[in-house]
Design a protein that fits this description.
Layout: H1 2-62, E1 64-65, H2 69-78, H3 82-103, E2 106-119, E3 123-135, E4 143-156, E5 159-167
Antiparallel strand pairs: 1-2, 2-3, 3-4, 4-5
Helix pairs in contact: 1-2, 2-3
Length: 168
């Protein structure tokens, strides 16, 4: 009886080993698929948040009123990050601050359209159509200009910030 039991026992062991290996492979596959899905969900969330943030942040960066220039520029600077933040601060603290105060300039940017160009979970590029209304002292009618810009955004500490603006 023991001789006939040995081959059955070895065969049964192989079957159970194969089942165990298959079960482990299925669990690993499910974990991988869940991670991929979760990553995809994060990217989808990032896309929506990046576009929404760009539509708010870019007008903040491009708008100012000489009557509240310090507050407007501080808010705009807080909306930027990286090398762009340094470059932006240099421009607004230099010529822009002086010319805005002297010319009593009020400049208001409005996003009229937007489209996502690229996005990952922590970086995005958004195409924006911007209308800018600028009024200077002595001018009764504002000058209106329109442009297309690509706004680069980076996620920093859970908040999207402008890391670049390029006219296209």
């Amino acid at each position: 009886m023991s001789t006939s039991q040995a081959p059955k026992s070895a065969g049964l062991r192989r079957v159970w080993t194969a089942i165990a290996v298959l079960a482990i492979a299925l669990v690993a596959l499910n974990v991988g698929l869940l991670r991929e899905r979760h990553s995809g969900d994060r990217v989808e969330e990032a896309r929506a948040e990046a576009v929404k943030s760009a539509k708010t942040l870019v007008p903040t960066v491009l708008s100012y009123d000489y009557r509240r220039l310090d507050a407007d520029l501080a808010k705009a600077k807080a909306s930027t990050t990286g090398r762009f933040a340094t470059e932006y601060a240099g421009v607004v603290d230099g010529k822009l601050r002086q010319s805005a105060a002297q010319g009593k300039v009020v400049s208001k940017a409005t996003v009229t359209g937007s489209s996502l160009v690229t996005a990952t979970a922590n970086r995005a590029v958004v195409l924006l159509f911007v209308a800018q209304s600028t009024t200077r002292s002595g001018s009764k009618v504002p000058a209106i200009s329109t442009s297309r810009v690509e706004a680069s955004l980076a996620l920093r500490d859970g908040q999207w910030l402008v890391s670049g603006i390029t006219t296209v």
